[in-house]
User: Fold this.
Amino acid sequence: MDDLLTEAQRQHHRTITALVGTAWGAHGPDWENEAELPEEVVQWCAAQGLFGAVIPKEYGGLGWSAVELGLLYEALGRVSASLASLINVHGMVARTLVRWGSDAQRETLLPDLASGRRVAAVCMTERTAGSDLSGITTTLKEQPEGLRLDGTKLYTTFGRRADLYLVLAAGAGGQVCCLLERGNPGLEVTPMTGLLGLRAAGLATEVMRDCPVERSAVIGRPGFASTVLVPQLLEHGRHAVAWMAAGMLHRAFSACSAFVLGRETFGRNIVDHGQIQSLVTAMGVDLAAARALCLTASRALDDVDASAPRKVLMAKYLACQVLERHSAQAVQAMGAQGCLEENGVAGVYRDAKVLSIIEGTPQLLERLLAVPLAREAAAGGRP
Assistant:
């Protein structure tokens, strides 16, 4: 990937990869086994300014470009998908406020989000609303005493740790996003357990019963959420997940390569067997392709190119597909060693399935991509 980056970007990637890897490189499997990201890791992220990566410098953030953010998520993904998810969901809320928040919301909240004094999470999914968010039943209604929020949200990443929630609800004029403080008297947060992957990502259920919401906590006008806010939220999340997947595939490829280069079977090094050579070759080529597509998406975002949404979808689609396929192959190649948590590949294998689902399943992305790609190809253009 280095040959596709500028010198400044290469240095940024080396710096952030070394920073994250040196601090936490060996800890990812322990976090997953314990099903918790330690508070010291959260505070470390705050001290390094990572919560403010997406926030402009004027509010105390780092103001990083999409390319710089992508390289951050790749570096985090090499260590832990749960760790990368913490910065991702926090960034989704911060990016929403940067782009669509009121002046008062920006001035009041962004400095705290940039410093990590507050950790934010996104509440969208419900039991009957996942890929299709038109089915949400959570409501924000006008009552005699003011706005009241009622409903239940599921699978909120770092919901059990968050101080501030961005909640998608149905309002009188259409879907709306509002901010909800953790201390709201009508809010009950319950940890979710028994998860396939992202076990250290602090997933939770939020039950909201007659939660009072100030008008100043609503973002945008009624109906604005479904047409602008949610698509922008998902674009940010998909961009991050694509890069996370590339980082996770790098981790699996590195562990698998070290194993096949150092192990012998039937009098030959494993990497000398044709089937293993096919596996390693495909894994390495697909990793390079995923990184290139992620970088193309990041540059389109930085250039505010009209093709950026499609390129982000393509990056998420490819990166998560190859991660899911090759993490399974890595476990297979490493045999019993691949099944051990301490080697990290088993955790990547589990997390890969989750990444394939969150922020849009492959089937949903195919539905969004097929017609535009076909039309462009038929017209003689290129993706």
Notes: The mean pLDDT is 94. The domain at 225-378 is CATH 1.20.140.10 (Butyryl-CoA Dehydrogenase, subunit A; domain 3). The longest strand covers residues 146-156.
